[in-house]
Amino acid sequence: MSEIHSWTDEHTARRVRQLTDLPDGAALPYFRLAKHVPDGSMLIHARHEKGGLMTLEPETGRLRPLPLGLEAHYLRLRASDGRLWYYTGSDRSIWSIDLPAGRPELVMRLPADAPGFVADMTCDGRVALLLEQDHDLKEYPIPTTKDVATFWRYINRPRSGRIWAVEAETGALGKLVETEGVCPSHVEASPADPTLVRYCLDMYDAYGQRVWTVRTDGTQHRKIRPQAYGELVTHEFWWPDPSRIGYTYQDRRGDETLSERPWAEYSPRPTHLGLADLDGNEVYLSEPLNCYHTHLYCSRDGRWISGEGTDGHSYVWAAPFSPDAGRIEMTALATVHTPYVPFRGQGVNCDFSADGRWLLYTDTVAGRHQILACRNDSP
User: Fold this and answer.
1) CATH code where residue 50 lies
2) What pTM does this model have?
3) Residues 338 and 347 sit within 8 Å (Cβ to Cβ)
4) Boundaries of domain holding 68
5) What is the pLDDT of residues 154-177, one digit of tens each?
6) Cβ atoms 110, 165 nearer than 8 A
7) pLDDT digits over 251-281, tens only?
8) Domain-embedded: residue 49
9) What sign has the CA pseudo-torsion 356, 362, 365, 369?
10) Per the structure, how many domains does the chain have?
């Protein structure tokens, strides 16, 4: 077992291992993105002379740079066999490579008239999903303070959007979703069904229906966990069992503070972990958690829940999970030192190693983001 440095956490008294010490820093991919390579290593963002992605072995700390080019943009990692799809912007091309040591292969070049940007690939690599968003984020910037007026100005900004599907073999372009007054976002294909896509709408989470699915031919739009006004559903993600979709839930119906305290992290109502099936029905709702988490996520085997605390709860958390138990006992494993930003979190993106022994996360060390690990010995 190796690390750059290790110490005893000042609040939890647990051992923390620093696995990277890169001059430009390193980060785990966004919490929804698969990170696990079949050899047990994990994918990380880390700039090097041949690209911006590496693999990291949680136990040994060994780094392997991936020679994908400096423009490579992560799209999808298929954990079952290690196939990674990535995008290069200069020629609008999509490539694949079999990790850990395969060679890049061209999948497709986008048609000249393809709109938006590449958001994802289906799990069979046959369809690229494009996201087109029309809004002015300079005029209506993403709120990063606790100023209520700025928050609502952003939420109420003029906008529209579309989700498109492009067939890799033929270049055929089809529109899946079109919206007015809101933008589609978080476009993510199913990890198991190559015809199914999950997405969300960027309205205020407690005022409308957030999570949806649609087929790659534009049919079967379906609400996932239908919401009543005041029910707040957010941070949706594919469960390890891909017939389930996870999310966080707050019941803010009748909450008189809703418009003055719209942030979920500052809500007076408790947060729950919820699961819905692909028909949209809620099939699990936990008891209240012990604090709000910017993101909740589940280990690959479905046995462990990780949490990313927020303002006042700046730790990485872990808990065993059973769908037969409503109570989830989250344990704080290590302190997060990156400053908390309202509406944005701390960029932790924690996830468990393949064997579940370590919880890896991104934190600030000496002014740079690096990858840290703490042993998962939660009860």
Assistant:
1) 2.40.10
2) 0.95
3) yes
4) 35-109
5) 999 999 999 999 999 999 999 999
6) no
7) 999 999 999 999 999 999 999 999 999 999 9
8) yes
9) positive
10) 1
